[in-house]
Design brief:
Length: about 260
């Protein structure tokens, strides 16, 4: 829903009966629900600021994502953790580990460093610097994202309260997928200067956090990667052999062992 008077979006969760299509009940009422996924039959993992301190920081514009567990029967919220990042996709590995995909920008990193880690000073710098920007990458603007100069999708491993960055800014990651507590995969595009449209596909081993390439040939445009089992990943991609950038995609199943 949209709050036109206050110029903001409102988001809540409802429980539906998938067979009848009936709305069973509204689960949340705070208008701030972000990402969400089922943990088990009674619990959801959801994101969104709930306590006053987190709401105040979020409303200021501080990059923040707060994770909760919501029991749909008792309506009890359990705060899991929060990270000062704009997370737009997550995958739970276990109770203490999550694979996270964040929308970052190295210029914002520099602003926070200049502010000495003080978020109020950071916001002052952002307000000053956002009056203009230097477009030194192509493309600097994209449909659906607006001004995207230097914007990056970065992959992080959240492990027992620590945040470990897995990708550097030569790659802008678009999507992550996870298989149990074993491994994850992600794909993205080579970035920096001129961003390529071809993608690269990687695997991260949760045992040691190592990242290895599944396909780094720049031979395909990827749009989807979903893990099927321990040995296979389904991908949507095209090689532009027939119709260029807008060629229909192939549905391929890749063996992770090869």
């Amino acid at each position: 829903a949209v709050d036109l008077e206050n110029d903001k979006y409102l988001s809540n969760l409802w429980l539906f009966d998938m067979e009848t299509g009936d709305v069973l009940e509204q689960l949340t009422f705070d208008d701030r629900v972000g990402m969400h996924e089922w943990l088990d039959e009674e619990n959801l993992i959801i994101t969104g600021a709930r306590d006053e301190e987190d709401k105040a920081e979020e409303d200021k514009g501080i990059p923040l994502t707060v994770f909760y567990k919501l029991n749909i029967k008792t309506k009890e919220y359990t705060k899991l953790f929060k990270v000062y990042k704009d997370i737009f996709q997550f995958a739970r590995i276990d109770d203490d580990r999550y694979l996270l995909l964040s929308g970052d920008n190295p210029m914002r990193d520099a602003y926070l460093e200049e502010a000495g880690g003080d978020w109020d000073k950071y916001l002052e710098i952002v307000e000053r610097e956002d009056r203009y920007f230097i477009a030194d990458e192509v493309p600097y603007w994209t449909n659906g994202s607006g001004y995207a100069n230097k914007d990056r999708g970065r992959v992080y491993l959240y492990d027992h309260g620590e945040l470990k960055r897995l990708t550097d800014d030569s790659l802008s990651v678009c999507e992550i997928s996870s298989y149990k507590d074993k491994f994850g995969v992600f794909w993205g595009m080579e970035s920096g200067g001129v961003q390529r449209t071809e993608g690269k596909l990687y695997k991260v081993d949760y045992a040691d956090g190592s990242v290895t390439a599944i396909d780094d040939t720049n031979g395909y445009i990827y749009t989807k990667a979903e893990i099927l089992d321990e040995d296979h990943v389904l991908v949507l991609r095209n090689d532009r052999a027939f119709h260029g950038e807008y060629q229909d995609e192939y549905v391929d199943i890749l063996e992770l062992s090869t």
